Amino acid sequence: MSMRIDVITLFPEMLDTLRDHGVSRIALERGAASLSCYNPRDFTDDAYRSVDDRPYGGGPGMVMLPGPLDRCIDALREQNDGPLIYLSPQGETLDQGLAAELAALPAIGLLCGRYEGVDERIVSTRVDREISIGDYVLAGGELAAMVLIECMLRLLPGVLGNADSAAQDSFSHGLLDHPHYTRPENYRGMAVPPVLLGGNHAEIARWRLKQALARTRARRPDLLARRPFDELEQELLKALDLEQNDE
Ligand code: 9WO
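Above: the input record for the complex with 9WO. Below: its predicted structure, written as tokens.
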């Protein structure tokens, strides 16, 4: 089953980046998903093809007009009955769990705002969900939509090889990733940790988990706080505590 993604944007060419490169290109080529754009500029009703106007109440910047957006959403709705998501700093924050939840849907629509935002009457009547990719302001929703799309596409069945399946991802187990090494064995005096050269796969898995736990505790203790530990993880954390006390 293929996922349908429709994006409302004044800059549809930005999405070509996803079509042209990497894992998103593979996902779309293989038909795991489809990606189409709708431009509110094509649904304007004046000679200037206006998509924005000055904000009631004054202030800087412009607001996206409700009329062209409403008609644009009507057109999208003829093809896509999934939730319409508005990318904005006011939304719930994207994480791997939310991306996986959305990637499991047969269809979603994404609304990208520009200027100071979208007329609130569109948000309240036509938007199903508001999502933020982090606490910062961009110049528009497109890059946020592209982040969300890439995040979802790489989770679709058959997109990544089984070898590096999404199950091995950082975050799928709620921890940061362990360190990685490749050739040469010695680079500018820095050796690869010997355990990785020994071929003992159980020992390697244990070392990687320990590294992941140490890094997560040092850099993102908030991630550890909302996650239970199994017996092996408790043992490795205890070992890390003892090593700390030795220093
Ligand atoms: C503009 C602005 C100007 C002065 C004071 C506050 C302001 N907020 C904004 C603003 O939020 N502009 C947005 C631009 C309107 C919606 C589309 N734009 C957007 C989306 N910028 N950043 C995002 C975004 C989306 C998802 N996750 C992070 C950021």
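Notes for the reader.
The radius of gyration is 23 Å.
The mean pLDDT is 96.
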